Structure of Amino acid ABC transporter ATP-binding protein:
Amino acid sequence: MIEVKNLHKSFNDNEVIKGVDLSLNEGEVVTILGPSGSGKTTFLRCLNFLETADLGSIKVNDQIVEFGQTSANEILQLRRKMGMVFQNYALFLNKTAKQNIMEPMVLVHGYSVEKAEHRANELLESIGLSEHGDYYPSQLSGGQKQRIGIARAIATRPTVLLFDEPTAALDPELVGEVLKVMKAVKNTGVAMIVVTHEMQFAYEVSDRVIFMSDGRIVEEGTPHQIFEEPQEARTKAFLSRFT
Ligand code: ADP
């Protein structure tokens, strides 16, 4: 349902993604692990054109887009099938929690304000924040802000959700509430690609784990295969830091 082929990306002459392929089935959750600087965030950002990849293609449902030769309209069509959750939440600070959730529904997907508000209320309830719809981001904790970020990303029922280190900026005691929402999101059947350092989450929730290093996929497998029986020296060395 989602197929990325031969993705390459350089910043000037520094090639940071060196030919990555990735396929996901409907509702599949894939976690990407790897050392800092290995290209995980860049890879994710290329998928929805926040960075412009140099080469390769992405297919989501029936739409195939070749990187490097894309029209603005194609990018918009593709983005409509994706939601993204950022490490720093990326909320509009001058809009309330509810307005943040509604914004892409109305501006990108053409929902009426009434329909968007109805959906936003439903989402606020599902993430345990129905009392907080009129709060501004500055009045919310990091965990609450990230739950709003997730609600915004899932509002229009995308095919795939991209998570870029969604808990990395949080105080440790707030990580759990965000992971709990992510688990609930998985149960809705949306495909998810999650860049994270939360090993327990990767182990429990992913269908597949990818270990990336130096711009390439070094190893991939089930959580059991990667965590219990890693084959590659670089995977073993990376994981040994977490045990
Ligand atoms: P990771 O997410 O695995 O930590 P990144 O994708 O953030 O890795 O970074 C991969 C490499 O790309 C790093 O060497 C980083 O310095 C470089 N990089 C990332 N973004 C940019 C940019 N906008 N301009 C130049 N280099 C970048």
Observations:
- The pocket of adenosine-5'-diphosphate is lined by residues 11, 16, 34, 36-42 (CB under 6 Å).
